[in-house]
Amino acid sequence: MAKGYWVSVYPAISDPESLTAYNKLARPAVQAGGGRVLSRGGRVVAHEAGITQRVVLIEFDSFEQAVAAYESEEYQKALVALPDGFERDFRIVEGID
């Protein structure tokens, strides 16, 4: 079964400290959904049309598990806590077996 991944890129974060409320809710929701953080805001080298802003990569045992974690009540509560002026490109992608 192919793994599932959450890939988040943050082109604009005007106030990183404002993500605190989201992070407090999102972290346990991701863990409860079986997610494992592989990368969170580390160094980035961008090529071509890439951006160097924050990137987060979370792995799940399956694509279906990744979708279910996003749709969970716990994670939906975290999304409500995202601050105004916050921009994120979020995708759920299926890995290769």
Automatic annotation (TrEMBL):
Gene3D superfamilies: 3.30.70.100
Recorded superkingdom: Bacteria
Domain DUF1330 per the UniProt entry, residue ranges: 3-96
InterPro entries tied to this protein: Dimeric_a/b-barrel (IPR011008), DUF1330 (IPR010753)
Pfam families, per database record: DUF1330
Protein name according to UniProt: DUF1330 domain-containing protein
Native source species: Nonomuraea rhodomycinica
